[in-house]
Specification:
Blueprint: H1 29-40, H2 48-61, E1 65-69, H3 72-82, E2 90-94, H4 99-106, E3 111-115, H5 126-131, E4 137-143, H6 152-162, E5 165-169, E6 177-178, E7 181-182, E8 189-193, E9 206-210, H7 213-223, H8 250-260, H9 263-281, E10 287-288, E11 296-297, E12 303-307, H10 309-312, H11 318-334, E13 338-339, H12 350-353, H13 380-388, E14 389-392, H14 402-418
Parallel strand pairs: 2-3, 2-4, 4-5, 5-8
Antiparallel strand pairs: 1-9, 6-7, 6-11, 8-9, 10-12, 12-14, 13-14
Bound molecules: pyridoxal-5'-phosphate.
């Protein structure tokens, strides 16, 4: 007979009742009214909501300038172009991130150079970063993962010493802080994403943000067909440089503006729920909980747990064990809010390993490029992280409460005790 301790995946009763977990993002009357107003307007391409969204987001984040884009990846590519990277230049990037943190570098014919992560923060290891610098290095593309800022004090010192630009991939970390300052204001320029899964979402969309006028105008060139006009001048449709079409459009911008009014609240809820989950799980053997270093404010955009495979005696077959763990957790009623969003380290991905992004080996084959190798063995922490970790996002976000966090903790402990 199925007892209360029988896992739902084995036919037991799920711990989380149906209807407990809500979709993300929450939709309110404000979203409806902003979107209706956009529909009732006449400019549906880069319309008034796009301009307002860029201004409001920049003001919220503490940036002087921002440009609304159709994705975070577009904004990242604009960052790489803006800091003046050219064919064969190297850009340092963590070995563990979303693929486009590194493909945005390739899109500018530059060479990604990977650095392992710091085990505790899951962000780039600042100590190893310095060792990856060569005379080809142009920029450091730091990624603030899961809602936690990278170690920016050290990274800023390294960048200054070697005259390198800092690009911030803040796509997962709206509202995260380092030494009191928002991510996106800590380097030369930054990219944010408003994809549905992010803390600030508008379906799809992104933002390029900077305080530097010069970077802004270079980014703007790539953003809209390579055209540039002095402010206020009429568009003359002259492609003065190689551009792309990275502009956002009015409807998602309207959605994003309405969501932005609730972003502070979203972050408060995520932090409160994450704190409750941490209190419930502290001291449970077999789990490694996320940390919040002293200088940082973590938004817990994703609450990332590592299964301690050493303690669990599961170092062999760790990935399979983690996958079964996540499947069992989902079956308890947490659905898609529990997952491993990135299962591969970047240097293991074909696009980098093959070293042939554009055909004929470009950009690696360029006479301007130094030979690099992508040996997965150099990134042991990122690799273990890929096999040992899982993340919780939606169930810890608005409108969920600390009661939900307690329920999640119960699910985790139940699965931990009964998976075999
Ligand atoms: C989501 C994400 C991106 C890409 O953003 P899109 O809007 O999906 O293009 C880039 N980097 C990181 C770390 C992300 O999480």
């Amino acid at each position: 007979m199925a007892s209360k301790s029988t896992l739902a995946i084995a036919g037991g009763v799920p711990l989380v009742p149906r209807g407990t977990i809500h979709r993300w993002p929450p939709i309110s009357e404000l979203d409806h009214s902003y979107i209706r107003a956009s529909l009732d307007g006449t400019d549906h391409s880069y319309g008034p909501n796009c301009r307002r969204f860029a201004e409001e987001f920049a003001a919220w984040n503490g940036n002087r300038l921002a440009l609304h884009t159709n994705s975070g990846t577009a904004a990242l590519h604009m960052c790489v172009a803006a800091v003046g990277c050219a064919v064969g230049d190297e850009v340092i990037v963590p070995a563990y991130s979303w693929s486009s943190s590194a493909t945005a570098i390739l899109h500018h014919s530059c060479i990604p150079v990977f650095v392992d992560i710091d085990w505790d923060t899951m962000n780039i290891d600042a100590a190893q970063l310095a060792a990856a610098i060569t005379d080809k290095t142009k920029a450091i593309l730091v990624v603030h993962l899961h809602g936690l800022s990278a170690s920016m004090s050290e990274i800023k010192m390294i960048a200054k010493a070697h005259n390198l630009a800092i690009i911030e991939d803040a796509c997962q970390s709206h509202g995260a802080r380092h030494a009191g300052q928002h991510v996106g204001t800590l380097g030369d320029c930054a990219a944010f994403s408003f994809n549905q899964n992010k803390t600030l979402s508008s379906g799809e969309g992104g933002m390029f943000a900077t305080d530097r006028e010069d970077l802004f105008s270079t980014a703007q060139q790539l953003w809209s067909f390579g055209e540039t006009c002095p402010p206020g001048a009429a568009r003359d449709y002259h492609a003065v440089a190689l551009g792309w079409m990275y502009r956002g459009s009015d409807l998602p911008a309207a959605f994003g503006r309405a969501q932005l009014t609730r972003l502070d609240r979203y972050i408060e809820v995520q932090r409160a729920n994450a704190a409750r989950l941490s209190r419930c799980l502290t001291g449970v053997p077999g789990l490694i909980l996320p940390v919040e270093p002293q200088a940082c404010l973590h938004t817990y955009s994703t609450y990332t747990i590592r299964l301690d495979m050493n303690a669990l005696g599961r170092v062999e077959g760790a990935r399979q064990y983690r996958d079964r763990f996540v499947a069992a957790l989902s079956a308890e009623g947490l659905d898609s809010g529990v997952s491993q969003w990135q299962r591969f380290i970047l240097p293991e991905m074909n696009v980098f390993r093959q070293q042939n992004a554009f055909g004929r080996g470009h950009p690696w084959s360029s006479p301007h490029a130094r030979k690099v190798t992508y040996d997965a063995e150099h990134f042991p922490k990122a690799r273990s992280h890929c096999d040992w970790s899982f993340g919780i996002s939606t169930p810890l976000r608005e409108p969920h409460t600390e009661d939900t966090a307690e329920l999640i903790a119960e699910c985790i402990v139940k699965v931990l005790h009964h998976l075999d």
